[in-house]
Write a structure and sequence with these properties.
The chain has 190 residues and is α/β, with parallel strands linked by helices. The protein is 55% helix and 13% strand. It contains 9 helices and 5 strands.
Length: 190
């Protein structure tokens, strides 16, 4: 099994690229949203650490956003609680897909949380800042302050780009993304 980690800036199209590889994808953001909706254990842990903000189950994403914006330490508290469970989910995903040729890791903090292995192929999704900004503004819960808080806990984009084995220039057209993915898979397979 070859693990392919997808890296890039917030809003660069990492999930879109990951889903177009045609192989199993571990999407950490999706897994976190499932935890918020279905996992009472996570709810009670977050409620204990953030009683002023976390009040009802299933967890309300707006309460989480409010907690993050209210205090810079709250994001760290949330990450510690949620990250442990995401690691468990990732191990289950890897075990389930151990016989697949490739698996795709769509994990925003892949390098930061040391979830990558040295053998992972890293693919950086590069997009114009203006295109990213247009996409972010269209998001349902777009909040510039929140995005900046997330960016502060991430490694610099230039560092991630340098660490990557491949770069996909994302102009947000399917044709371009598919062509780039095919080129990567061809190089890896040969």
């Amino acid at each position: 099994m070859i693990r392919i980690g997808i890296l890039g800036d917030i809003g660069s199209g990492k999930s879109y690229v990951a889903n177009n590889f045609g192989y199993p994808v571990f999407n950490a953001d999706y897994e976190v949203s499932k935890l918020y909706k279905n996992n009472r254990k996570i709810f009670f842990k977050l409620k204990k650490k953030l009683p002023k903000y976390v009040t009802k189950f299933p967890l309300d994403k707006n309460e989480i956003i409010y907690a993050i914006l209210a205090n810079k330490n709250n994001l760290h508290k949330i990450i510690i609680i949620v990250h442990r469970e995401i690691k468990v989910k990732l191990k289950l995903f890897l075990k389930k897909n151990r016989n697949k040729k490739f698996i795709i890791l769509d994990i925003p903090l892949l390098l930061e949380n040391k979830l990558n292995s040295k053998k992972d192929l890293l693919v950086f999704v590069d997009a114009k800042r203006s295109d990213i900004k247009k996409r972010l503004i269209k998001r349902k819960n777009f909040n510039f302050k929140l995005i900046n808080k997330f960016k502060r806990i991430q490694l610099p984009i230039d560092y991630k780009k340098k660490k990557s084995h491949f770069i996909i220039k994302n102009n947000f057209t399917k044709k371009n993304v598919i062509k780039s993915i095919k080129n990567i898979l061809n190089k890896v397979e040969n």
